[in-house]
């Protein structure tokens, strides 16, 4: 059973529904526990399972008897939590039913030590803690009250199939026009939640500098991500970005695409994908762009350098807009380089970041087997 009692919507919340179809394909019966009416519950239902729901995190603790009954009826022996706050419930369930195995994925990257009495109790019930990158694993080793052998790096994986090109040239050009990209322009996109910390401002400042650095280059910027809280974004921050775009005189050169369920197709419409997040715990957008065969510019911080090797894209200093302008200019002016980087990125995604390989590794952990070399 995957437990995700979150009312937000981001990579963490998307994870259970992302991997459950592959778990089922590999022979596991998957269940979910979510907040009633949440996007997580909706996403679980979209995979074909009926999630067990609770009204709130607090009520989940009061309904522990009901949840234990559900686990017993369905023969569930593995619990997998995705928010640290959900470990209260997971650890309580594992305490009341000691045969349960409890797993936890640290999707966010811990920032402070968790070694007080409560955390020693909660994490003491965890069979395995998964770090989603080596960068977060190193922080996990220092922060969590667990021996090193119970903390494993497990890169996330995605279904690569939807990211293969599907549009013919007329359809691609029509989609580009819909995004405000005119014929002959280089489309430079930034996909992801519109929240502080994702690097939107340094990217916009980089675009303003790009206009000065390469005045002959025709380009258009595309911001892809929900514009409302329901879609996972910070509405005040969205308003701030709109103001910043006007201040930088980019009003005619940047489009807000909003939330798009057809993200793989939007990647087809882009020439360059930028991921300027300051401290990404993994970098799912980087992997998605790699799977789409795009030329990528990523921040040189967090886990992104682990994913984006030199022959797959370019790194730019997370806080330096001039560095972003230089990287975007290099790729924007060289279509052959973009093509070469994109092909190498796609091959790397196929080797290392497919969901099937991720789930195989996850199942080995569920079964208590040592990871393969």
UniProtKB/TrEMBL annotation:
Annotated TM spans: none
Domain (Glycosyl transferase family): residue spans on this chain: 173-347
Pfam families: Glyco_transf_4, Glycos_transf_1
Entries under Gene3D superfamilies matching the protein: Glycogen Phosphorylase B (3.40.50.2000)
Segments forming domain Glycosyltransferase subfamily 4-like N-terminal: 9-160
This protein's UniProt keywords: Glycosyltransferase, Transferase
Domain of life according to the entry: Bacteria
UniProt cross-references to CDD domains, sorted A to Z: GT4_PimA-like
Family per similarity comment: Belongs to the glycosyltransferase group 1 family. Glycosyltransferase 4 subfamily.
PANTHER family, A to Z: COLANIC ACID BIOSYNTHESIS GLYCOSYLTRANSFERASE WCAL-RELATED (PTHR12526:SF640), GLYCOSYLTRANSFERASE (PTHR12526)
Protein name: Glycosyltransferase family 4 protein
């Amino acid at each position: 059973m995957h437990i995700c009692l979150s009312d937000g919507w981001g990579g963490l919340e998307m994870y259970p529904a992302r991997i459950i179809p592959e778990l089922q394909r590999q022979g596991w019966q998957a269940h979910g526990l979510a907040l009633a009416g949440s996007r997580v519950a909706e996403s679980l239902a979209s995979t074909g399972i009926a999630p067990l729901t609770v009204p709130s995190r607090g009520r989940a603790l009061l309904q522990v008897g009901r949840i234990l009954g559900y686990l017993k009826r369905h023969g569930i022996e593995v619990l997998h939590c995705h928010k640290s706050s959900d470990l209260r419930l997971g650890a309580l369930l594992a305490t009341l039913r000691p045969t349960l195995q409890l797993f936890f994925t640290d999707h966010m990257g811990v920032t402070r030590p968790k070694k007080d009495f409560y955390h020693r109790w909660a994490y003491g019930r965890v069979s395995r803690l998964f770090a989603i990158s080596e960068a977060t694993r190193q922080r996990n080793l220092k922060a969590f009250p667990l021996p090193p052998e119970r903390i494993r790096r497990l890169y996330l994986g995605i279904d690569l199939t939807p990211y293969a090109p599907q549009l013919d040239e007329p359809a691609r050009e029509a989609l580009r026009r819909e995004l405000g990209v005119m014929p002959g322009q280089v489309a430079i996109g930034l996909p992801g939640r519109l929240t502080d910390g994702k690097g939107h401002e340094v990217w916009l400042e980089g675009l303003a500098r790009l206009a000065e650095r390469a005045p002959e280059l025709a380009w258009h910027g595309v911001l892809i991500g929900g514009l409302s809280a329901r879609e996972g974004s910070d509405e005040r921050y969205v308003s701030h970005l709109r103001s910043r775009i006007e201040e930088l005189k980019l009003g005619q050169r940047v489009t807000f695409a909003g939330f798009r369920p057809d993200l793989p197709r939007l990647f087809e419409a882009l020439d360059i994908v930028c991921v300027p997040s300051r401290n990404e715990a993994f970098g799912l957008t980087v992997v998605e762009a790699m799977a789409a065969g795009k030329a990528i510019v990523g921040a040189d911080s967090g886990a992104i350098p682990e994913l984006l090797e030199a022959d797959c894209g370019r790194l730019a200093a997370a806080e330096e807009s001039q560095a972003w302008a230089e990287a975007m200019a290099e790729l924007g002016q060289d279509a052959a380089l973009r093509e070469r980087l994109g092909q190498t990125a796609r091959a790397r995604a196929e080797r290392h970041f497919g969901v099937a390989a991720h789930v195989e590794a996850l199942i080995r952990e569920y079964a208590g087997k040592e990871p393969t070399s």
